[in-house]
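Follow-up to my earlier ticket, as requested here are the two runs.
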Amino acid sequence: MNKCLGWGLVGLWCVLGSVSAWAQPIKVAFIEVLSGTMGNVGELSGKNLQFIVDDANARGGALGRKFEVVRFDSKGSPQEALAALKLAIDQGIQIVTQGNSSAVAGALIEAIDKHNQRSPDKRVLFLNFGAVDPDLTNDKCNYWHFRFDANSDMKMAAITDAIRQDRSVKKVYLINQDYAFGHQVTRAAKEMLAAKRPDIQIVGEDLHPFGRVKDFSPYIAKMRAAGADTVISGDWGADLTLLVRAAKDARFDVNWYTYYAGAYGSAAAIGEAGIGQVKVVVEWSPNLPNAKMDAFNAAYKQRHPAAPDEFYYYRMKLMVGLLGQAIERSKSTDPAKLAQALEGMKFAGDLGEVTMRADDHQLLLPMYIPTFAKEGAPGVRLGLEGSGFGFGNAVVIPAKDITLPTSCKLVRPAG
């Protein structure tokens, strides 16, 4: 017999206990690099996520429950991230999010899968907002992992679509960080340029140590010597900032197609030298004409007025939106029920509808490629980080044009 059945104080205690448990917040473990050379990137993503969660909570949360972000510092290390995951699980947290490092994401996916097999009553769901190694939703796909950012191949498909239309591009140089993501960017650039613009020559490529290069001037010298007119780079964080600063100091006048030139600290480092030349592939930009996101971005800046504190992660807004919708539809926070609800889910985002593909748990969304310009120039209403520069006049790449086939063969849990 259920021990909560019956009359009197015992029954009342059980009812109140059940209500209290349901009123508890929905905790989300945010496992990110919050210290070291890349710590500023993790801190900014944390501020973005907290604002999104606060906004969702102000609108009622999910099933009347509030979301709560619990922060863990991965220090950019897979080993530290795994230690943080154990702490989160020990605290009873069943939803984990991370995004700044595909190496960390890969380690988390493997560990969560093993944990879920060992402890099916304490399963964990992994929501990936930015680790974009395509293998994570291809050969290394996993039922408990959902990605809310376009993977690096999808972003390269967008970049090479734009380059196909840019006949000024003749000689391309590739420079990327020496880890899984950087290798994938290099591979995808070669394959897609060969298919879409066989006339383009790849005049050089470099894979440099992640987070350890202090002076990129030797790399810039190699690019200049190779006669490059365009550089493609997936660098992010301090590496990207130092790279573009070295190019600026050397007066290296080329086109840049980047993944993260709109990210923390980059706009000021690029400066005048980037006007009309530096481009970035993004899922949102503050200069896209959209009233809903204009209002949301303005509210964020009101809370975080400091120049470096920009709203950057629209994909996180999609992530929290889909999570909330999955909770409402499944009437549960159980990871198994949430995963089932998320598969194939369509969501009406502020920029239009997106779809979580059931085959591999990859979100399908459009991409935009805006160009660097002075704040106040046509199409650039807002600058970034008080730099006086921003990105505008975006080329729009529809989701259907970057929806690539997947080799994923998901293993779904029994039942």
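Run two:
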Amino acid sequence: MNAAPPPELSGVRLSDAQKLDWLRLIRSESIGPQTFRALINRYNGAAAALDALPQLAAQRGKPIRVTTREEAEREMDTLRRIGARLVALGEPDYPASLRAIHAPPPVIAMRGEAAALGRPMVAFVGSRNASAAGLAFTERLVRDLAAAGFVIVSGLARGIDARAHRSSVGTGTIAVLAGGLDKIYPSEHAGLADEITERGALLSEMPAGWEPRGRDFPRRNRLVSGLALGVVVVEAAHRSGSLITARFANEQGREIFAVPGSPLDPRAAGPNELLRQGATLCVKSQDILSVLEPMVAGGPSAGPLFREEERGEPAEPLWDELDALASGSTPQTQPGHEFDEPAGGAPRDFPAVAAPQSPARAGNAREKIEALLGPSPVPVDDLVRAAGVGVSDVQIALLELEMDGLLERHGGNLVSLTPR
């Protein structure tokens, strides 16, 4: 039987059979967004890719557990039971802004009003242990932006996220979950999640029934920033999850707004650092509106569904991609770990943003990057091209240099060595 080709234009709806095949493929072991697209391109459809997986795994010397049709049907049934549905990349309800990011999820689970996803969006992120002033200022900004026609995006976490959602439930807000749509986290926000669906939507790329783990939060964060024209950081400790969202926003070409705070308050360290790196100062809603309103007419353009450069082996695998099988390791986390401001310094699961790599490979990448850097800021894209290594290798090398105090980040995705 010939496999149906993947849709090539936005607005094409998958048949039920095609959508089930897409779900089976993306839910199979070690298949992430980039591997999914590589397989779709190589085999001209999900059904043929599923048939080819066992032989492909055998060639790599490690079996792959392929999601069964019954398992995929159970997930679809669970979503229907809670009033949710799956939307595939390229279908009319798939957000154009999300389609434009690097490695967009092939399918997202959605519960609520899809119309909200067609309006211009602004993301809010910040501390879970927010100050009273931070919460009040968040509410003020959100209400002004909502009155101007913007939908608010956040991650349904405690603190700034929750205040942003609650301040916009009547006008439209989008919550992106790190777990399945039937596993609201934190659990005390289940009522808020129901309110959100009346005028907005809940989104997740994770399977129904999935309990969020530490490494799932940065994965969620890339969708929070990817949906929006800009990201507002209200309060965030140094090296917090909110700053990871800001970093994704920078890589995705989104605007970054930072609310300044007292240097004596650790919760202001993140926004103040972003301002030093070139983020837009935000002390009133007009600071955001003056930047984003001119962008609303055009908005972020949606790239092609299956880019030519993504054919064959994925260049920058996520931690769950097929290429990660060769390393024999995956990030280790505990159920329920959140990706925010852990006691004792760096986030628990930061390396999970990139693919696992051997110490020798990591060392070589760092040496190359450090040799290419100097006191003058250079674009990260130029480093990738000059170093001749993968984007994930470059990002890990930059992270190591930054944590050692050897790297400075500047606006416009520029980096340089710290003056000595």
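The only thing I checked on run two: The longest strand covers residues 107-112. Let me know what else you need.
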